[in-house]
Specification:
alpha+beta; Nucleotidyltransferase, domain 5; Aminopeptidase; 4 domains; six-stranded mixed β-sheet; 24 strands; about 25% strand
Length: about 525
């Protein structure tokens, strides 16, 4: 398998594509106006504490306060508060003893429910963004601060040493853990990342020293500044992809912009010189994404309909609460046995669904309506195929077995807006519904307005302004709809076209005074 990273950089955005044998498997877009925030560290203030939902809201200087769930308050928060000169009062000892007096599961549940961290309104606190804002929700934050590097992740005020679960070789895990113990300063914890496989002690130590230096700078800034304040800004999307995903599996990195090529080349030479030769400046006339056939794959990515190899297709719909995916067989009917046909289409759909969720960065609740399968063993095949494909996903994914109705429920870790939301805006005409008012109903709306207006006004001469497409509908027919309306209500209406008014909408104005009459009718 040939794995490549292709980077297209322009003055307005940077796009990063990761391909496997030419097929797009990951896609990231970096906008100057929509900067990546995950990993940023803020000095904030506790705005509200709501034990009822087990959460606090932290003022970090954004439009919406950051959401801090009590489960995201790390064990190191006390040391961070002391560093700031703040303190978190201890839990009430008598209350904790009463909760822990019984070793039964019920008492453990009760203890978990009652235990509330003692945060105070107005208290300073250091938090790190873990999820970017989505729609009207603010960022999600944690007080368990960590600093990611190329080979390891630094955990201030912690003594834990961990090794990535993706490193399967026992001897390598043991070697890396031993190196970590030898180089780790006191009062710090460390997690060894997957890309650290076969790296030398000096490479890990250099990475660690850089992280410790960064943390000392964060400490100094946090002590001297007044909240809310950004005290550490993580790498942008493009740099973080190189840091996190550029490993030994990647055969080449192609970059079309000379300036970005130099920046990334210098960064990799600094942190891992052995792989810097894999980075190449790609010169092109058509465009790097055109040359690698990525543009066409992105166009499919943006649509609601996704084709499957055998003629079936997926329909992906975003709702307020969840994402719904419908699997359709299309014209595929190779076998005379319907069960075999359905199974083949569902298996193809399983692989494509896992790929699309990674590509589009779909998070939250996802419900998939597969083609019905009669046999239980075939339903299990679909479930096993989904689990296998989701192992490639870096986000946390949970899958439930297929129900009797052919539905599969999936939850996927949401970190940022999905790619469609990031790249697209709602249509100002239909407001994202994809629907506009039919001609028959538009005439009904106009008649209803006039009926209400006539009850409290004697105005007989008016101007009706509407979009040219709406005006065309009102002029259609042997006897124009507009003429019929004038005869019915005994009014004189002058039709004026206005491109600033959305199709399916209209406004009434007084012919004498020019006053907008539309809002006079509820």
């Amino acid at each position: 398998m040939v794995k490549e990273i292709i980077i297209n950089s322009t003055s307005t955005q940077t796009r990063v594509a990761i391909t496997e044998d030419g097929n797009l498997v990951d896609f990231f877009v970096d906008y100057p106006e929509n900067r990546r925030m995950v990993g940023d560290i803020y000095l904030g203030t506790v705005a509200r504490v709501l034990p009822g939902i087990r959460a606090a809201f932290i003022d970090i200087g954004m439009k919406h306060d950051g959401f801090l769930h009590f489960s995201d308050i790390g064990g190191r928060t006390h040391q961070l508060q002391e560093m700031l000169g703040e303190d978190i009062p201890e839990e009430d000892e008598e209350e904790n003893n009463s909760n822990g007096s019984n070793g039964s599961p019920e008492s453990a549940t009760k203890e978990h429910t009652i235990a509330v961290p003692k945060l105070r309104k107005g208290q300073s606190i250091i938090v790190q963004i873990t999820k970017e804002p989505v729609n009207n929700k603010g960022v999600r934050v944690t007080s368990a601060v960590s600093l990611p590097g190329r080979f390891c992740v630094l955990l201030p005020y912690d003594n834990k040493i961990g090794v990535s679960k993706r490193i399967l070789d026992y001897r390598e895990r043991k070697r890396l853990r031993s190196i970590a113990r030898g180089i780790l300063p006191e009062n710090y914890g460390l997690i060894i990342r997957t890309v650290a496989v076969n790296q030398t002690e000096s490479a890990l130590k250099d990475d660690l020293n850089l992280l410790v230096k960064n943390w000392h700078q964060i400490e100094e800034t946090a002590k001297s500044e007044t909240p809310p304040m950004l005290v550490y800004q993580d790498l942008n999307t493009t740099s973080s992809v190189i840091r996190d995903l550029f490993n030994s599996d990647v055969s080449k990195v192609f970059i079309d912009a000379k300036k970005m090529f130099k920046e990334i080349k210098n960064y990799v030479k600094l942190v891992q010189p052995s792989v810097s030769d894999k980075i190449e400046h790609f010169k092109t006339h058509l465009g790097i994404f055109e040359d690698f056939n990525i543009e066409q794959q992105i166009n499919i990515l943006m649509g609601r309909k996704v084709p499957l190899p055998s003629g079936g297709y997926l329909i992906i719909e975003h709702t307020e609460a969840m994402v719904v995916i419908d699997v359709n067989s299309g014209r595929y009917a190779k076998s005379k046995d319907q069960e075999i046909n359905s199974l083949k289409t569902d298996l193809e759909a399983s692989r494509e669904i896992a790929r699309q969720m990674r590509l589009r960065d779909i998070g939250g609740i996802i419900v998939v309506d597969f083609i019905d399968l009669e046999e239980e063993k075939n339903r299990k095949k679909i479930f096993d195929e989904l689990k296998k494909e989701f192992r490639k996903d870096r986000a946390k994914v949970s899958v439930l077995p297929m129900s009797d109705f052919g539905l599969v429920q999936i939850t996927r870790q949401r970190i940022r807006q999905n790619i469609v939301q990031a790249m697209k805006e709602s249509c100002p005409v239909c407001m994202g519904t994809g629907l506009i008012t039919k001609e028959s109903h538009l005439i009904y709306d106009i008649e209803l307005w006039l009926k209400k207006f006539r009850k409290h006004s004697k105005e007989r001469s008016m101007i009706i302004k509407c979009h040219p497409s709406t005006a065309a509908k009102l002029k259609e027919g042997k006897t124009k709809s507009l003429t019929k309306i004038q005869i019915k209500f005994l009014v004189r209406l002058k039709l004026e076209e206005d491109t600033n008014i959305n199709p399916g909408r209209f406004k009434f104005f007084s012919a004498k005074t020019g006053e907008d009459l539309t809002k006079l009718v509820d």
